[in-house]
Every structure is written in C-alpha cells, then in structure tokens.
Amino acid sequence: MANQLLSTVSYRDSLPEGYARPEHDRPRLADVRTDTNIPLIDLASPDRHRVIAEIDQACRTYGFFQVINHGISEELLEKVMAVGLEFFRLPPEEKAKLYSDEPSKKIRLSTSFNVRKETVHNWRDYLRLHCHPLEEFVPDWPSNPETFKEIISVYCREVRLLGLRLLGAISLGLGLEEVYVEKVLGEQEQHMAVNYYPRCPEPDLTYGLPKHTDPNALTILLMDPHVSGLQVLRDGAKWIAVDPRPNALVINLGDQLQALSNGAYKSVWHRAVVNEAHERLSVASFLCPCNSAVIGPAPKLVGDGEDPVYRSYTYDEYYKRFWSRNLDQEHCLELFRSQH
Ligand code: OGA
Ligand code: NI
Question: Which residue of 252, 270, 283, 285 sits with most ligand 1 atoms within 8 Å of its CB, as the best mutation to test the pocket?
C-alpha cells in the first residue's frame, strides 16, 4: 500500500512499528570505521595495464572499488541526484500512482525491500526502473518531474557504456579475452534503483538496506556526495564505511562475477545505514545477464582435474531463487555450489 511509503510522512520521535531489529541484528554504528584505503581507480590513466591490474586486485580483495575520471560529467551526476530527490518530494497522491510491491514489475515505486515477504522493514523507499533498451521502457517512466526521463535516459546510456568498459577490463584481469564476460552475459538488461533514505529518528535500531550481495553482474552506484551510509563487510567480519568522494562512482561486483570467476572475485556483503540528521539518496545501476544466459565458472579458471566451485545455471533460475529469499540470508551463490 502506498501509505507505507516513508517519504510521504515525517517520523520525528521514534520508529513506527515493524522497523526495529532485534538486539543481535543492529548496525552498531559506533563500531564502524571509515576505510581510507578503499581502492580508487583513475580510469583516465594512460597506463591501461596498470588500470586492469588495479581492478583485478580490487576485485580479488575488496570486491568493490571507486572510479574517478570515468567519463560521466560532474554536471550530469548532479542533475541525476537533483531530479531523484525532486521525485521523492512529489506529493503523496502523485507517488501513489506508481506504487507497487510486486517485484516483477518493470517500473515501480516501493518501500523497504520485499514488503510481501519480510518480517522487519527497512528505512528506504525506492524507485525501480528497467532501462534497456531505453525506447521500450522510457515511455512508462515518471513524467513528473518533467526533466526526469531526459536526464535519467542520458545517464543510463553513459552508465551502460562505463559498465561494459569495466566488464572488458575485468575479463582481461581474469586472463580471459576482453569480450569474454560480455559474451557470456548476453544482451544484458539494465535496471536502476533510486534509493531514498529519509531521516530516521532511531538509526541504531534499523537499516536502510540490511546486509546483502547484489544478484546481478556489476553494480555502479552514484552516492549522495554529502551523506555517508554505504558500508561494506571486510574480511567477513568488520563493517567499514565507504564515504562519498566527489565525482567518484562506486563499483561493486555482483554474484554473477563471483560465479564466473570461479570464486576468485568477491561479491561482497554490503548494507546501507541511515541517520538522524540527513536524508540520503543513492542511484544504483545494475547490469544484469540476460535471463537465458548460462552462467558458470569460466573453464580457463578451473584448475586441471578440479571441479568448478559453482555449477552452471541460467540467470533466470538464479534471479527467481534470489527474490524468493530474505535479503540477509546466506549468500545466494552458496545454493549453487557444485555437488561433490
Ligand atoms: C543497492 C545498494 C547501497 C546504498 O541498491 O543494492 O546496495 O548505499 N545500495 O544505497
Ligand atoms: Ni546492493
């Protein structure tokens, strides 16, 4: 129901019912540190081999990195953030028209993660769009704000090019042909989540998004330049904050690249936390294999006489499995390990 949207009401004193996590499952915000060594990769560096090696290293260790000089202009990034915020500030009746909690819909405004399945809600509203091919989906996108379609279309096009460039570099870093990953993933879908995290009266008790890995191949995240919220799990144990950096984009690997790399690359656990003083916006672009793509470890990456770590499956099978679970259960890829 549209009246579950957080962005239509202001909660000043305490969390409404259904948002507080049990004691053992709270973000412990005071224990989280900022990691200043998060890989930062300059994509305009003339030394291409070095860029590929840096991406490879980041994918093996952190599973995510930030890129600068990525080719998307500062002006466009600012416009995307501004129009995103403007959207969430629309009057409730305008937003209610787009509300849906049916995950298969190709455009919808929703809240939390999967309100039909979850028992505790998350402090997030989100607008989810399919973005490729643009001509097919843009007509159904919001026409209010007036500039939304135009700005987001241009951004989607540029993000896709960046994503494909990164997949080329990732293939090379794995020692595969440059087009290998792109070929396996097929005609990739592209989805977007415009995430809006309102100010929260009790940020220690809840999440914007609880810990999860992204089920797709590659995620490109544009973050609010002024407000932190993204946290990543390091070494399976320690949450670190990824603070925004001007004009940088955060790249994180999704489950499909972990599978394809036979486990060499990591699809890391990450989460979004909220805060009392500021609302926060992030725009996540997901490159997703086409549904019929058959995904499994690249044969070249499986040692002689060894079994691949994961079995092959279609993305369709994976995606259905992902959405049938709770977000913070075990790593979905664990369900696809080869049987010995
Ligand atoms: C996501 C995500 C993090 C953030 O949308 O999958 O992880 O900081 N977002 O909003
Ligand atoms: Ni994510």
Answer: 270
